[in-house]
Design goal:
The chain is an alpha/beta fold. It is about 25% helix and about 25% strand. The protein contains six helices and 14 strands. A hairpin with a 5-residue loop joins strand 9 and strand 10. Helix 3 packs across helix 4. It starts with a strand and ends in a 5-residue tail after the last helix.
């Protein structure tokens, strides 16, 4: 199975957000792979590897990044996890909206012709949750979003996807090629099955860490770069970010001595009773 996985770089959520002149101040910021995209890479690796066998792989994983040149560090980390190839389409973080990103992903899909496109369900910076649905629409492909389980068929022509919904799990069977986005539970020990790894095998929970051997191997793996012109695209964003501002700082709380004092404040200051 040939799988294309998207990986976006995002500011590390652990660092303090700074706003300057109406925009995020990312000077000196630390960037990481969007966590949901990292889950998608892990799912792709599980779908294409054999735990017990003469060979260790039964497919190929290509990681696609869209952003400035210096996001190659994040794509190399995906290669160090075990992905086979990386492809960087150069663009600015601010110059592309969800619609433009979807156009780029669709163009790369047509160029690469994978069996499956895997994406994280959303990015933790924009949280728009639009790209996968737009790509599926542009390409006319079946889609399943928020996957918590994926199982490849024995003949490699379809995948069965479990989606968590209110009250249970919805199961969809998609003929390939298809578009699937993954949610947090896709990295549980037995969430992904590929008919090659023994059914009883349980992975460690979460995305795998890159080994030293993997980090060294990543330096020699294919890493291609494209620009938007090579894909026949012109960046014309439809969404313009006008300004960002921090929310008003919360006032410190007050500890009251009695219920009567609380009722007095609610009645005479807040005027809610």
């Amino acid at each position: 199975m040939k799988i294309l996985v998207t990986a976006k770089r995002v500011p590390d959520p652990e660092q303090k957000v700074k706003i300057k002149d109406g925009a995020l101040d990312l000077s000196g910021a630390n960037f990481i792979v969007n966590p949901f995209d990292e889950y998608a890479v892990e799912a792709a690796l599980r779908l294409t590897e054999k735990i017990d066998g003469a060979t260790t792989r039964c497919g190929e994983v290509t990681v696609l990044g869209i952003g400035p040149k210096d996001m190659s560090q994040q794509l190399r980390s995906c290669l160090a996890m075990g992905a086979d190839r990386a492809l960087l389409v150069e663009g600015s973080d601010e110059g592309l909206d969800s619609e433009q990103v979807a156009r780029v992903v669709a163009a790369v899909f047509q160029r690469e012709q994978p069996d499956l496109l895997l994406l994280g369900k959303q990015t933790v910076d924009g949280e728009s949750n639009q790209v996968a649905q737009l790509v599926a629409g542009y390409l006319g492909l079946p889609q399943a979003c928020f996957a918590c389980t994926i199982e490849a068929s024995a003949d490699g022509k379809s995948v069965t996807v479990g989606r968590e919904v209110d009250g249970g799990t919805e199961t969809k069977r998609l003929p390939l090629p298809a578009v699937v986005t993954v949610d947090l539970r896709i990295v549980l020990p037995q969430s992904v099955r590929n008919q090659q790894t023994p059914a009883a095998h349980a992975y460690a929970e979460g995305p795998r860490y890159a080994s030293l051997k993997g980090i060294m191997a990543a330096k020699k793996k294919p890493f291609d770069q494209l620009d938007l012109a090579a894909l026949g695209l012109t960046p014309t964003p439809r969404v313009k970010l006008l300004m960002l501002e921090a929310p008003a700082q919360r006032q410190a709380g007050v500890k009251l001595e009695s219920v009567d004092a609380l009722l007095d404040k609610l009645r005479n200051e807040a005027k809610v009773i």
